[in-house]
Design a protein that fits this description.
By secondary structure, this protein is of the alpha/beta class. Helices cover 42% and strands 18% of the residues. It is built from 8 helices and 6 strands. Strands 3-2-4-1-5-6 form a 6-stranded mixed β-sheet, with helices on both faces. Helix 3 packs across helix 4 and helix 6 crosses helix 7. It starts with a helix and ends with a strand.
Length: 232
């Protein structure tokens, strides 16, 4: 009986130590330049089952669940010293950003920055518009091609990183919120984790309405948390 009790305590304490370890921030080397809360927009109507003829404008709006998610995200981000909220031009990201700004009481509201927009589609060699399945096939082959008139994931990372570097100059050592899309979130998180470009979307495919946190320093980027789904 005593032996079983000892084994039980070891297992419980071992699991408890693991949970504590996971809650501890990783060691951050270098000077902190900017803390980024990267939000994948809340659930939109285009993310759920919808009738084929639904107008694109309507698909680009949040569902009731998406609206709930924005409030939960705002509550999570409240009192974290946020000085700016930035959004892409898309309706679903702007709705998400506006709600977050209201919940945290940011008087300046939010700003729109096209640098964090989803990848431009482009056309295949036969002239047809590429599909998302086409991108996934190329990444599975270990490639990240740039379609004609469109962008590769590398292109999306490049422009998003350029805007983040400007934010470092504008808000040194502060905390900002970026509301973007799954592809750009994956590109930036993959950069921080040093994940090969073709594997980033699969490895860092965070859910809608989630928050990821990373810190930019003069020695590199450090992920604190990835794909946290905020709750009420």
């Amino acid at each position: 009986m005593k032996i079983l009790l000892v084994i039980f305590l070891v297992v419980v304490n071992g699991c408890h130590s693991k949970n504590i370890h996971e809650d501890i921030d990783p060691v951050i080397h270098g000077k902190v330049l900017l803390r980024v809360y990267l939000v994948r927009h809340a659930e939109a109507k285009k993310n759920v089952v919808h009738v084929a003829w639904t107008p694109e404008e309507e698909l680009d709006t949040l569902t009731a669940e998406g609206q709930r998610q924005t409030i939960a995200i705002g509550n999570f981000l409240n009192e974290k010293g946020i000085v700016a909220v930035l959004s892409t031009p898309a309706g679903r990201t702007r709705e998400t950003a506006q709600s977050i700004g209201q919940v945290i009481g940011l008087k300046s509201g939010y700003e729109v920055d096209p640098a964090f927009a989803s990848l431009r589609g482009g056309n295949s060699q036969d002239g047809n518009q590429i599909s998302w399945a086409w991108r996934e096939k190329q990444w599975a082959l270990g490639q990240d091609p740039r379609p004609a008139g469109g962008e590769s994931l590398s292109d999306g990372e490049f422009r998003a990183k350029g805007s983040l570097n400007k934010l470092v100059e504008k808000f040194p050592e502060k905390s900002v919120v970026i509301v973007s899309h799954g592809d750009i979130c994956a590109a930036l998180l993959g950069y921080a984790a040093n994940t090969p470009m073709p594997k980033r979307y699969v490895t860092h495919d965070v859910p809608t309405g989630s928050v990821s946190e990373f810190i930019m320093t003069n020695t590199g980027w450090h992920i604190i948390e990835e794909g946290r789904e905020a709750t009420e």
